[in-house]
Amino acid sequence: MYFPIGWPKYLRQPQSDSFQLQHISCSCDRMFFSILSEDTLSVWYCKPAVQIVRYTESQRNLDEFGFFCCAEWKPDSSAIAVVTSKGCIVFFLVELDVSVANHQCLYVTQEGRNQSFRRENNGTGDGDSIPAIKLMRKCEIQLDYNITSCLCIRDELAVSTENRMLIRIRWNGTRNEKSSFHLQDISVAADFQQSRACSLSDVDGHVVQMEYSPIIGGYIMVMSTGRAIFIVPPSNRRDENAAAGIWAPDLMDASCLAINHRYRLMTFGCKSGIGVAYVINELEGTLEATHRLQVSSKDYADISRAAGSVRCMKWTPDGTALAMFWEKGGFSLWSVFGSLLVCTLGGDYSLTKNGSKLFPSTVKSMEWGLEGYQLWMICSDKEEDQQGMFQSVETTHLIQLQFVKSALTVNPCMSNHEHVFLQGEDKLYINIGQLSSVSKSSHEGSSTSSAESHILAGSRHWQVIPISHSYLANNWPIRYAAIDRAGQCVAVAGKTGLAHYALFNRKWKLFGNETQERDLVVSGGMVWWKDFICIACYNIIGQRDEIRCYPRSSKLDNTFVNISKMPSQVLLLNTFRDILIVFCMDSHVMLYSMERKNTQPNSTLEVTKIQEVALNNYIPHPVCVTGVALTSLRTESVSTKSQQTTKEAESLLLNVAGKLLMFQRDRSGPKIKEKGEQKFRLLPFCPPSVVATNVENLWTVSRTSVGKLQLTEALWLGCGSHGMKVWLPLFPRSESDAHNFISKRIMLPFRVDIYPLAVLFEEAVILGAASDAMTMKYTSPSQGGQQLYDLPYSVLERTSQIYLHHILRQLLRRNLGVHALDLAQCCTELSYFPHVLELLLHEVLEAEATSKEPIPDPLLPRVVAFIQEFPEFLQTVVHCARKTEVALWPYLFSTIGNPKDLFEECLISRRLETAASYLIILQNLEKPMVSRQHATLLLDAALETGQWELAQDLVRFLKAIDPSEADAPPPLTQFNLVNAGGYCNASPPITPPDRDGFTFSNVSNVSRMRSASVTSTEALRDVPKLKEKPKLTHTKSDNQVSLKRPSPKPRDDTNADQVYIDQILNRHARKLLSSNRLRDLGYFAANIENFHLVAWMKNERLRSAKVEDFVGALRDIHNQFEWPMPVLSFSTYQQLKFKTLSTSSLASLSLLDDDLQNPGFSNSTVLKPASPQHTTLQAGGTLKSLPSQESFQNFSDDVMLQPQHIKTEDSSLATVEVSDSSSMIGDFEFLGDITSGTNDSPSPDLDLLSQEINTKGPLQSDLELR
Hints:
elongated; 30% strand; six-stranded mixed sheet
């Protein structure tokens, strides 16, 4: 809820102080702060933080009455009571000092040469004006005993003394004997219902600190013995014979306390360094512990020794966060029910590298500022004097911490939105990601689309909106803030008036008439409905409470406003579809229907009251209601078939001091129509049922997603240290399965690692925020700039967490696997769904495999069976195993099955990356021989599918296996594995330089041959068996090396292993070359290390490199590189034509006849060009006529190729030379009249240019061929 931000501010103190600061307290409106030292009383203003007046006590009075200890303000800020060390209370009057010129504004804000002072209608200054006040000592009252605690209760002071008296003193200095009592007259028991109660005695000690809560109805006290007690004063007792007080159970070391009035919580700090929160159990009449404020030992070890006992604690003004300080320094911030928000005991908050000095140092007193934006602290440092090693000097600092808070703290209606929205004293923080750049027209809708939700979940940046200075100057601080559902319009309300801002045009709208702005005070929240901003305000001129609705598109003026009068003060606002929910101070909830009228020139809003519900019998006090919402949820969920798109208001949700009450519609009576209308009157509500306790926030969604009804029809609850809860609907698969005795909803709790501020329902993601710290050097002003500290700078970060696996786990634990499967299947399109399955499997495995207790009904088999329903099963298992300790693998695979079987399934389904991960598991669970066999299978598959990087990793993996340890036992306790994450890296360049100096652009520069090549063709073609160690033969080069220097046996095994790998690589290369796959061969040689392509091709020139079908090989190469086929230019065609006619012989004619009779040419097409055309080689060796020369852009070389059908002694392997004794036209079956068009010969330059362009292939292929 609250997060520190920015630098801590050290406020400058007067240098004439002879005593250190002791205590700080604030006025009721938190505009003024009184700061005490032992002899001075000073009054400071909240903002700017400056000292207004200072009173110094005389030495004679100090000797007579004692030093100043603590102070309390009168509720109207007209007096201050100061308690001294000798049991005296001194009263000071706080008055406006009219003797000072311009006393309404002691300090004037000057901007440049212009300085201005504005005066409001009631005579007081504007927001920046600081009045001149004076302190007058009025009187004092001397008590018989020293005062141990003091607090203000309405118009009286309640003080406790060392003799266990509780005395009520009026502000005029007289006692109220009727309300005073002695603790020995109080009977205390374990609960209010017990008859045996005993009075307090001297053994129980005296009061150290006390607080009074009118909502709880009594005093809460911490005794000097460490026990805590709740006492009902005599004026509030109903039965004189009943016990007047009850002990807090299991609490023996309490040191301080703080009371949360809204949530009726009593929080105690303990000497052990933890805090405990209690609430009154009204059924049993006892104090019941709800949660503990204890920092995790995993993050902060030995907190009691490092930080000490809890020194002081204080709730924020809105009661949504608790600040707790320790004796030795450091502080923590907690939510209402114990979720840790900030802790300075570790990380960059420590002022020294070893963490010996905490930030802040020991806090003697603290107080929250106006609206909780600042935290005022008096910190004490004890430093060794430079003149002596054993002397210590205590210095005090007045420090101010800055905070931002969630809009949920004061405006709970923001829980309907899917944005993290934080408000500071002068800025707003929104996580809207990239949505701010979308056009205005896309924000008229009332819901967030799925694509926008993806951006919200992935964006980690804040959209920071500075609040208009023109508005903030007169209306500081910002009290309320609201954002619309699209995240594009925000509104703020300060001391008076309001202003709103549009992100799509980045402009603020303020009241043009400042009088209208100053005449209204927003007092009950604000909410957006479509393009209207609805506020609950108090009309100062009319002296009444109102609901006002201003249109966004119009000017901010009362001319365009819709006003509805309220019978009492409005405390909360919310909306549900077209219904406005209003909760008032009289404990009544009123429902209003809103209808937008598209009138010209501006749209108007019609607000009509449709229902009013009285809730006085269910609410102890209206202030305790922290949230109100209208929802379509019902305890009995309807089936998916009967689910309607338009959702009706079925239930009213009320959060009363953390207890969530649900009021459902009473459908037992008849429906009644309104007079003169066709609509039915809204049904009344039934008595409430308690849905959950310890509720801080609740989230519902008003829209319906047909594909994700389980998520959109659920109720999400934030419960502090208890994590989150989801009230999930259970839809039956068919109407016949919908039995009455089967539950229709289920409450599922789950833990979260962040504090939830928003829920993306359809994305199954929780959004939150966190504060982190960075350090800088700081020079202490008290030490003359000599000593340096590391001052922390707080930064704000946005956090997110997936929660779907928690829900699936809870459903499977409760044997609701069918509902878990339905829920998971509707989320399979999420990009992180495989990660959800991994988290589910990992958490269950860690919990059960490390459990010290036996598990009679393990959950892991059900989780495994559940994951098998999805195609990501194999990937999920291996990823989970790789992220888990090796010692847990046997337990995992004893449930899942043999990893060898999973490896084979990956090979069959061609999931080679996943199979590579299983290979790492086999290396640790099986013998090295088994890993080698499976790696060979995977290598063959990787080479066949062209996954070269994976193949290279597998080659290194095979080389790393020691042949001498092939039958060694599996290394279950080792985890030095090949990095499988490298398999997913980016592909290397297509033509990297060879490591032996060979490059594909210079094939003639061969530096050396492979040192381990196989000489036997039969040995190369034999495929080694997987389950038997292959018999490897050594090369001639190996024998030469062995003759020079005999190698030991491990070296022979290494050579044999190298030959074994070479066999696999050579076999695949031979397969590629024999099938004319030159492109794949190039990739293969470029990505496989130590494969010498030139040397290998020289060895294969008479084997696999020999071309049998030259035309087929040429066609395959052209198809692989997408390169155009060879083209006959027109000039060459003319030359060959005349040459053929002039030199034709019987031999050429016979050759032509043989070609025509060849079955391979029977389906050839005979072409007769009618105009000058080009001919190109076609499949089967035919010539195909091309378009006329004018349409050509490309031409090719004059090479004529054909398969060799008649082999002679002089013929080459794959070509037929063009000679005078051969007829090329006859070879290509060009028949018919070829004498036409001889005079239309193009120019040679145009012919050459066209030929070059026509034979040009794609750029990528050109790079590969080069």
